[in-house]
Amino acid sequence: MQQLILNAFLLLSFFSTASAAEMKETYNLNGEAMFFDWHYSHYEEPGLMTVKSRFPFSFSVGFRDETNIRSPQGNRSSGVSWNIEGAYGLITYDGSGTYDHSYYKLLFESYYSLSGAFFGGVGYRRLFDDFGPGSTSTSARTFDRMSEYFYVPLGYNIRNADGSNLKLQYNVVIKGQQTSYTSQVPGNLTDLVNDQNEGFGFDVSYANPEGSREVYYRHWSVEKSEISPRATISGISYGYEPKNKISEIGVRYCF
Q1: In this structure, are strands 49-65 and 213-222 parallel, antiparallel, or unpaired?
Q2: Whole-model pTM?
Q3: CB count, 10 Å around CB of 111?
Q4: Looking at domain 2-254, what is its CATH homologous superfamily?
């Protein structure tokens, strides 16, 4: 699974670089653009553990065309806007001991103008936490984790008189699933799969008048999952995914 995510991330990076020449004329994050960003992320299961970025933090590469939803009111096309990006990050777990590792993330969103500056769409987020197999500083066993969200983004764009753009977006989780690869830990025969279908997120971003750079903040809050079974050598065991929160803050640049 890790290799699959890595291959997809590398393919996205290659495609982005190969397409940069075609998009060079636009070079504007308010329209069609290639982009690169650095960001800091913070994941928390309140009272249990945290996972934070470590230097040199995380980066994303991607491409998007948000002309339809970011153009000034009255000058919008009838097309669909979209954003696709892949991210890689260096992170540190702090809970039952500490553990340095990394993650891979793919994100895709598609939007359509609803009325005026309002827009809606569909989104998919997939994050692979390369957490194991291994052990923390206190010898606690670690295992890989996969998080997937299907959601509906609803938002509003404010195009300022100087050409800058403020994008406000609220994300409603429709379907979420957390896979914990517990079979990587001795004594466990199967993985633990939990549905996490209650949650929300929001994004706030600001692009400068030239559209050459953008600062953004993302947040997710997902409720505790249902309890699911997994097989162990001593019988059936049950587990759940705790409530969690994720925050990212970053700076994005055109290629």
Answers
A1: unpaired
A2: 0.87
A3: 24
A4: OPCA outer membrane adhesin/invasin (2.40.128.100)
